[in-house]
Amino acid sequence: MTAAARPRAAGFGATVAACLAILQRDLRGVLRSRSQLYSSLLFPLMLLAILGAGVSDGLEPSSERIRDGDYSSFLVPGLVVMTALFSSTFSSASYYQDRDSGLLRVLMASPHSPRVILLGKALGGITIGGAQAFALLCVAALIPGIELEWQYGAFVGLLLALVTVVLLAVFLNGLAQLAASRIRTMQGFHLVMNLVLFPLLFFSGAFFPLHDLPVWLRVLAAANPLSYAVDLLHIAAYTDGSAHFGLALDLAVLGVLAPAVFLLGIGRRVLVDSG
């Protein structure tokens, strides 16, 4: 249906109702898929146990940014970012399932703008990715042997961590929507996102302190949006005052970049056919 032939929606209330309906549908789909729920928490916890203990006891890290050589506690913020990264972006792949099943075409025939449909889909990805990442942080904080600093107190630290994962999820969903506007198949989407996201994750400071890296890697890390999310989570939960970029810069970069990329993503052209 063309934009000229599309009946006008009832207004702001109808737009909110449409977004919430799409959000609820995507959330129900995740809740029904228990394997997705369990794996989103079990995989990073497994990495925390194996990689954290292996590096702490096997390599005995001596960096001053890793308190007392406790790599497991240092790893928690990075794993939170990793969880948000993959949960947020790959939940956006439901766009392809809806398109291939014909549901997307049905939604596009509704009185609502295609931007409203994309906004509802994006809100689902943000909610799923943010909730899973924040749940991982809460679970990790309760594990014996994980020593988080909470320099601002647990309540303020958790609030700052929540803001971080939401901003990160907003950025990642916008990035995923931009990729989906160029890539016609789900297989291609996963391939390209893995190709982009894994390097971003590795030089974000998620697995090793940026302070100890060579200059050329520190330059790449400074251009990496994920580095600011990792640094902000370190400030919220792990460090006792030291930070690579600083609280103000972290919030400024994520606060500007996340909504900008998100608006670009939901403003893209919608592909309703796979061909």
Share of helix among residues? Answer: over 70%
The H-and-E topology, N to C, reads as HHHHHHHHHHH
Q: Please work out how many helical segments DSSP would assign.
A: 11
Integer-rounded radius of gyration: 20 Å
Low-confidence stretches: 1-9
Q: Report the average pLDDT across residues.
A: 83
Which term fits the overall shape?
elongated
In angstroms, what separates the terminal alpha carbons? Answer: 18 Å
β-sheet strand percentage: under 5%
SS content category: mainly alpha
Number of domains: 1
Q: How is the main sheet built?
A: none
Classify the oligomer.
Answer: single chain
What is the tally of beta strands? 0
Characteristics:
275 residues; mainly alpha; 11 helices
Explain what the structure shows:
The protein is 71% helix and 0% strand. The chain has one domain (12-266). Residues 1-9 have low confidence and may be disordered. It has helices spanning 12-32, 34-59, 71-91, 94-101, 103-108, 114-141, 154-180, 186-202, 215-222, 225-238, 247-266. The protein is mostly helical.
Summarize the structure.
The chain is an all-alpha fold and 275 residues long. It has helices at 12-32, 34-59, 71-91, 94-101, 103-108, 114-141, 154-180, 186-202, 215-222, 225-238, 247-266. The chain has one domain (12-266).
Topology:
Blueprint: H1 12-32, H2 34-59, H3 71-91, H4 94-101, H5 103-108, H6 114-141, H7 154-180, H8 186-202, H9 215-222, H10 225-238, H11 247-266
Helix pairs in contact: 1-6, 2-3, 2-6, 3-6, 3-7, 3-8, 3-10, 6-7, 7-10, 7-11, 10-11
